[in-house]
Amino acid sequence: MTEALDRAFLQARTFNAFQPREVSDALLRQLYDTLKWGPTSMNSQPGRFLFLRSAEAKKRLAPALSAGNLEKTLHAPVTVVVAQDSRFYDQLPQQFPAVNAKPMFENNAVLAQATAFRNSALQGGYLIVAARLLGLDAGPMSGFDAARVDAEFFPDGRYKTNFLVNLGFGDPAGNHPRGPRLGFDEVAQIL
Length: 191
Ligand SMILES: Cc1cc2nc3c(=O)[nH]c(=O)nc-3n(C[C@H](O)[C@H](O)[C@H](O)COP(=O)(O)O)c2cc1C
Hints:
43% of the residues lie in helices and 15% in strands.
């Protein structure tokens, strides 16, 4: 238990540099097959995941990256585009048969967007924690132009990029000093 807590949270770091070690298809599949069990509202599972591993794919991403994220992302073994499917509700009848929820989202764009954003962000968080528990390291990023990523990888407009995650076996030499976290009494109350 202590080891799992260390690996997932207490000792886990955000990585900027990675060892020159490949991440296999099998491990990426295992990563998805782990994170998919994280809960989403009405089991909606709006997250979509594009694993950019080839040099060609990285080259397509490069123009959308902020200057500070460019080099480290090109060198990372894999970069995940965590996106949301704006029509996630099409699959709801199979995923959540208990309730006829599809019309609720289909007829309410604001609710659908909020649900897709909230739950795809959660699924991206599950991806980070699952990666760590599977022996990988992660470097999440929001410093990029989402509209450019969408235009390049999702031109039909259905998927929208939420954030990016570099993945691989981390090289701690690239880590920043760890920033402090807010204390319980600063952010929480028990009522
Ligand atoms: C959603 C998200 C977006 C982030 N965006 C960037 C980014 O664009 N560039 C960057 O270098 N770090 C980025 N970070 C990394 C954070 O600064 C880092 O996770 C945080 O400082 C905690 O570091 P630690 O895990 O090493 O303690 C991002 C992290 C998250 C979760």
